[in-house]
Structure formats: structure tokens, C-alpha cells
Amino acid sequence: MKEIKSLTGLRGLAAVYVMIGHIGFLENKNGICYKIKPIRLFIDHGYISVDIFFILSGFVLMLVYGNTKWNRSYNIFTFIKKRIARIYPLYLFCFLIYFLIDYIFINSWFVGNGNLGFIFNLLLLQTPFNIAPLIGPSWSLSTEWIAYFLFPVLNIVVIKIKNEYLQFFISLGLVTCLFLIGISPGWVGHKNILHCSINVFSGIPALFRCIIGFYIGMLLCKLRIKLKNNKIVSCSCFQIVITATILLLIMFTYMDIFVFMLLIILIFSLSYENGLISKLLSHKILYNLGLFSYSIYLIHPLLIGELKDVIYYSLKKTSLSNNAFIISLTICLFLVIFYINILNCPQRRGF
């Protein structure tokens, strides 16, 4: 099966959505974003994008490597090598920038986490061991990193399960586990703004959150390959109704698990590349946004956080201090372009 452009476009929108959730519109309690509850909840729910990433990762890897024979060590080594080449160069690039900024100007993260935190973050193992990530969004990369190593085993399990009913009950069980994680305050490890939120980003529960989405994405891909044509699920009306329902539900509390289930259905529908929503997400602009989604996801905290603050305080006594955001935006865009053209392409060629 060829690349599914609508899913790439969805990944791009998800990266922008999680960035909106991090920008801090809600810090001003007198602002319109804070006063109007549906808008506040919509922005708060930016973390749902991470679950989209998890599902899409499982789906795409199953699409590309689903028929691989993992009994050959060469295949496992090649797969891991490709994952490293795709994920690690940008992460290492950003990690060094973040570390230098923190160590030179702020010196808060390193003081709190020390050499052990540095090593675990460098190896992308921070989340399962409940160590604070130097790059905020990298907690999800840490869990996906482990999911990649588990993929050959999960792939064999998915292929061996022939019974559709068993697959359905496994999926239902995984969604139930995700719901239980959301309603268990002792597992969350942070102060939840929303009730029944699945916004778990530390420790073993965060790893479970990733594996659940990842595995469901794999099952979804297997089902999609089997059902080559499904005019009802892939029609415009179906996609519009599902999309509208998702947008409505994220403006309310207690709805995370229902949003998650609807996202599974939407991704399955979009994978047919029919229907209005699929066509919109396949547009060149959104498709290219999806190609840069990983860069957006990792670099945007520089734009809205450390880099902006450093520039502001460095230029505090000058007329340029009010333009700290614009300056940080320019620097971040330069970093993205530099990475894509100098570092990314050679590493990912053929991967």
C-alpha cells in the first residue's frame, strides 16, 4: 500500500494542535481564551494530539513492516537502524541546544536532575524511569522509542491473531486500560485539570498509554488491509460527522476516552483517502506540514519557552525586548530549515 497522504496531513495538524496547547493562551485569566470555557477546554485538550501520534506510528509501521520475517536477526537490526536514523538525529540536535541554553542561562534542569538525568535523557529512556525530560515533549518520544523495540514482537502477535472477534475484544480491553489510567489519580503523577483525563506523561502509565495507542494502530492497519473497500466508512458524510463530534467533545470534561475511540474510527476512515476530510488533509499545505511535524513537535518549546525568555531578559534594557517572540520564532525557523536541509535528508535517505 502506498503512502496515505491524509494521515500525514493529520499528523501535521496534530503537531500544530499540541503546540497551541503549549503556547500558554490560558495564562492570562482575563483573556477571552480563559473566560470562555469551551475555548479553554479546546486548548487544554492539545495533549490528545500525542495519542494521534501513537496510533499513527503503529499504523504506519504495520503498513511498511507488517510482512517482515522477524526470525532473521538482519531484519530486526535493519528496522532498529532505520528507526534510529529517523528519530535520533533531530532529537540529539535539539537536546544539545536545550541543554546549552539551560546550562548557560537558566541552570535549573541540570541542577535538579544531574548527570543521571542527563544520561537517561540522552538515551531517550527518561519517561519509564520517571525522570524529568529536558525537552518537554520528549516524554512521548521516550515511550515510542521503547515501542519501536517492541514492534517486532507486537507485529508477530498481531499477525498470529486471526480471529476478528478476539482482536475486537483486545482493542476494547486496551481502551478500558487507558480509561482506568485516566481515572486513577495515584497513577497520573501530576495535577489533572480535567476529570478522567488521559493526559499521563510520566512513569510506567505514560508507557502504557503509548503502547495502547501503538498496538491499536497496528490492529487498525491490519483491518484496513483486509477491508480494501468500505464506501460507508470512507464517505464524506461519515467523516464530517465523526470529525464534528470529536471537535464538540473536546470542549467538555469527562470525554477523553470517547474522543480517543472516535479518533480510531476517524483514522480508519481517512486511510481510504476518500471523502471530503481526507481530501482536505491530503492538500499540499497540510501534507508538507505533516512532513515537518516531528521538527515542529520538538522545536516549538524553544519558541514559546526557554529561548524566548533568554532573549527577553538579555535584551530587557533595549527596545528589542518586546520582539523576543519574533526573534525566537526566526531562530527556530532557521533551526528547522538547517536541520531539514543539512542534517535530516542525508540521514533519512532510503529510510
Automatic annotation (TrEMBL):
<dbReference type="Pfam" id="PF01757">
    <property type="entry name" value="Acyl_transf_3"/>
</dbReference>
<dbReference type="InterPro" id="IPR002656">
    <property type="entry name" value="Acyl_transf_3_dom"/>
</dbReference>
<feature type="domain" description="Acyltransferase 3">
    <location>
        <begin position="5"/>
        <end position="340"/>
    </location>
</feature>
<keyword id="KW-0808">Transferase</keyword>
<feature type="transmembrane region" description="Helical">
    <location>
        <begin position="7"/>
        <end position="26"/>
    </location>
</feature>
<feature type="transmembrane region" description="Helical">
    <location>
        <begin position="168"/>
        <end position="188"/>
    </location>
</feature>
<feature type="transmembrane region" description="Helical">
    <location>
        <begin position="324"/>
        <end position="343"/>
    </location>
</feature>
<feature type="transmembrane region" description="Helical">
    <location>
        <begin position="46"/>
        <end position="66"/>
    </location>
</feature>
<feature type="transmembrane region" description="Helical">
    <location>
        <begin position="232"/>
        <end position="251"/>
    </location>
</feature>
<feature type="transmembrane region" description="Helical">
    <location>
        <begin position="145"/>
        <end position="161"/>
    </location>
</feature>
<feature type="transmembrane region" description="Helical">
    <location>
        <begin position="87"/>
        <end position="106"/>
    </location>
</feature>
<feature type="transmembrane region" description="Helical">
    <location>
        <begin position="257"/>
        <end position="273"/>
    </location>
</feature>
<feature type="transmembrane region" description="Helical">
    <location>
        <begin position="285"/>
        <end position="304"/>
    </location>
</feature>
<keyword id="KW-0472">Membrane</keyword>
<dbReference type="GO" id="GO:0016747">
    <property type="term" value="F:acyltransferase activity, transferring groups other than amino-acyl groups"/>
</dbReference>
<keyword id="KW-0012">Acyltransferase</keyword>
<feature type="transmembrane region" description="Helical">
    <location>
        <begin position="200"/>
        <end position="220"/>
    </location>
</feature>
<keyword id="KW-1133">Transmembrane helix</keyword>
<dbReference type="InterPro" id="IPR050879">
    <property type="entry name" value="Acyltransferase_3"/>
</dbReference>
<keyword id="KW-0812">Transmembrane</keyword>
<protein>
    <submittedName>
        <fullName>Acyltransferase</fullName>
    </submittedName>
</protein>
